[in-house]
Write a structure and sequence with these properties.
By secondary structure, the protein is mainly beta. Strands 34, 35, 36, 37 and 38 form a five-stranded antiparallel beta sheet that branches. It has a four-stranded antiparallel beta sheet with strand order 1-57-56-55, with no helix packed on it. A four-stranded antiparallel beta sheet has the order 2-3-4-5, with no helix packed on it. Residues 1-50 and 675-694 have low confidence and may be disordered.
């Protein structure tokens, strides 16, 4: 009869053996004892970790790469927003593609994935059948079929990257601004370039460092306006393609837009001013200060209201403002945004104003008549820096900490892919988040108070550690009693702190900058990686003594201990993965995938499966590889997500989660042999022989 064998059943069988048999078979029995104990531990963990039945919403599974089960997050909010001409759809540009929504309800309608590039700039064709998009760092413009989501064609521009796109009112022309101070016009029907216009200097010569920031057609299509970062507003006659008017400002031009009848051109500049120009006379109609910096302008469809978006010195209440065009007086503030607003667009019927904030990763919809917030589009995240599962595998925590912004920690329901709790109390940078007794904790550096440890679920501050120097890396010990903090540039210090009291235990001094620190699974060792000396230092965390150094050929980008603590894996900048024996301090294996681009880049993250038999390696560009640790052979590769910052297995080994710089987390489905701690069936005979059924 087949049955699971626990430690107790093995002992019963052993009692039936005579002493001579036990003596002769001792080495084998010791090995079996260890193996069976591991099986028992696997059974215990397996019973403690409930199976997760995934029920993902449809939009979480749109355009997924092979082997991925769900996408958490919609990518970072990267640029333009746009209403379709009939007002039924709303488009949002993100780092992974274009999201389309039902404009009335805010429900997801479709997702167009942009392979190998982001999407920053958007424009609907006048008939709403096509959508033009362009990325930040490339010189092409894609034309999408809105109904099918397929790319119809790609317009390849000359020279520098794209900075803005727009259709002519009749849809016959497509324009593209660029980083080299040019505006290119294409014939949409023939797909041929019509002309390349140069902004400023009478359009005669290219000027290095000049960027076209904004473009706009007049409603009748006879004029084209463009603004540049050197303060020039240039107008051309579309029929002759000759410059007609040149305006010079003292600061960068951020937005140019015509009113619906084409009689007024509004210009917003980086110094916070808005200018209204009368196109019939060429004279300045009025100008006023709208914000600290104006980033976007939009006229209402009736032309009576001008919306401005930007940044302010202090107030959170006037990131978006509505102005009376006739009097240039302020009509109302639209309250809701706490970060700079980059894009504005009115609905075609003029009842709603949509505003996008890249820094806030949010799009807000306001009722124009009442100035009240209607609803938000959420799910956009900046770079995912760290991810980790809760012990039961039901929750995934992610941290995002882009430079210059407040940091965010998000908890996700793994079974549904929906966000649960969001903590935004952190300032500056979120560091390695860890789980303490099932309670997610996150460490955040605050230049005014030091390093702060938060309970993610409640948002409560647990402990503050008085670190005055810039914090480089943080690690929580497995028993959650000690926090290791690496801080300071040049000569760095790794300090060990008592988590409960917030008091300093000891400091470990280093002669060079530290880029990472981790505890071994038993908490007895600390691995500290050097930033510039290609060395990982090992310390005894109890005696606080150095116990060795692991020297490599190139800088270490990532590291992880095996579950049994016997091996340290280091991922490097030269696409190599090194496995070190902690006991002997010897290099036991080097991993590098041959004849493939999967490891052409830095190994940014490494993670072991729960059983320690599979190693996942994430790269900064080309995806994830899964390796058999014992044989050093490649098991599987996952492609379709780049710039990976963090990889982690679920506690039962059935999922691999990967967090990317693009602001998404992918959940990859794994077969049991990739690390799931599944109890193995076994038979025990009366003579004590155990047969494992694998």
């Amino acid at each position: 009869m087949r049955k699971l064998v626990s430690a107790s059943s093995r002992e019963i069988v052993a009692e039936r053996k005579n002493q001579r048999y036990v003596t002769e078979r001792k080495p084998l029995c010791e090995d079996l004892t260890i193996f069976l104990i591991l099986i028992f531990l696997s059974v215990s963990m397996f019973l403690c970790v409930p199976d997760i039945v995934a029920e993902y919403a449809a939009h979480l599974q749109w355009n997924l790469p092979e082997n991925a089960k769900a996408r958490l997050g919609k990518g970072g909010l990267s640029g333009d927003i746009a209403y379709s001409p009939d007002g039924t759809l709303f488009a949002v540009a993100s780092f992974i593609g274009i999201w389309l929504y039902d404009a009335e309800t805010g429900e997801e309608h479709a997702f167009f994935i942009a392979d190998e590039s982001d999407v920053a700039y958007l424009a609907f064709s006048p008939d709403g059948a096509k959508l033009a998009s362009a990325p930040f760092k490339h010189n092409f413009v894609r034309l999408w079929d809105v109904e099918t989501g397929l790319i119809e064609t790609t317009f390849l521009g000359y020279g520098a990257s794209t900075t803005c796109v727009a259709f002519s009112p009749d849809g016959a022309k497509l324009i593209r601004g660029s980083w080299n101070g040019t505006v290119q016009l294409w014939d949409v029907g023939t797909r041929e370039i019509i002309e390349t216009l140069i902004i400023g200097d009478n359009g005669q010569t290219y000027r290095e460092g000049i960027r076209v920031v904004t473009v706009s057609f007049s409603p009748d299509g006879t004029l084209l306006a463009a603004g540049s970062n050197d303060g020039i507003v240039q107008l051309w006659d579309v029929g002759t393609l000759k410059p007609t008017i040149t305006l010079q400002y003292d600061s960068s031009i951020m937005s140019v837009v015509f009113n619906p009848d084409g009689n007024i051109l509004a210009v917003g500049s980086e110094d916070g001013k808005v200018s209204l120009w009368d196109m019939r006379t060429g004279m300045l109609k009025s100008d006023f200060v709208a914000h600290q910096k104006v980033s976007s302008l939009a006229f209402s469809p009736d032309g009576q209201t001008l919306a401005s978006g930007g940044s302010q010195f202090t107030s959170d209440e006037d990131r978006v403002r509505l102005w009376d065009v006739a009097s240039s007086e302020l009509k109302s503030n639209l309250i809701g945004h706490t970060d700079d607003v980059d894009s504005l667009v009115f609905s075609p019927d003029g009842t709603t104003l949509a505003s996008g904030s890249r820094a806030g990763d949010i799009v807000r919809f306001f009722d124009v008549a009442s100035s009240e917030l209607k609803f938000n589009l959420t799910g956009y995240l900046s770079s995912i820096d760290n991810i980790f599962f809760s012990p039961d595998g039901q929750t995934l925590a992610s941290s995002s900490g882009p430079e210059g912004r407040d940091a965010t920690v998000q908890l996700w329901d793994v079974g549904t892919g929906t966000p649960k709790v969001r903590l935004s109390a952190c300032k500056q940078i979120v560091y390695n988040a860890s789980v303490s007794g099932g309670v997610p904790l996150v460490a955040c550096f605050n230049s005014e108070t030091g390093l702060e440890l938060y309970d993610v679920v409640t948002g409560d501050l647990k402990t503050t550690f008085s670190e005055s120097e810039w914090v480089l890396s943080v690690a929580l010990s497995p028993d959650s009693k000690t926090l290791a903090i690496a801080s300071g540039w040049g000569d760095s210090t790794v300090r060990l702190w008592n988590v409960d009291t917030g008091t300093l235990t000891t400091g470990l001094w280093h002669k060079e900058a530290v880029s990472g620190v981790i505890f071994s699974p038993d908490g007895g060792k600390l691995a500290i990686r050097s930033w510039d000396r290609n060395v990982v230092y090992l310390w005894d965390s109890n005696t606080h003594q150095s116990i060795g150094a692991l020297k490599q050929r190139t800088r270490v980008e990532s590291m992880v201990f095996s579950p049994d603590g016997r091996t340290l894996v280091c991922g490097s900048v030269n696409s190599m993965v090194y496995l070190w024996d902690i006991g002997t301090r010897e290099l036991t294996r080097t991993l590098q995938q041959d004849n493939s681009s999967i490891h052409d880049d830095s190994i940014t993250s490494v993670a072991f499966s729960p059983d320690g038999r599979t190693l996942a390696c994430g790269t900064d560009y080309n995806g994830i590889s899964l390796w058999n640790v014992e044989t050093g052979t490649l098991k599987l590769t996952f492609v379709g997500q780049g710039y990976i910052n963090s990889v982690v297995f679920s506690p039962d080994g059935s999922l691999l989660a990967s967090g990317s710089h693009d602001g998404t987390i992918l959940l990859w489905g794994l077969m049991p042999e990739f690390g799931k701690q599944t109890p193995l069936p076994a038979d025990a005979n009366e003579d004590g022989t155990v047969h494992i059924q694998d």
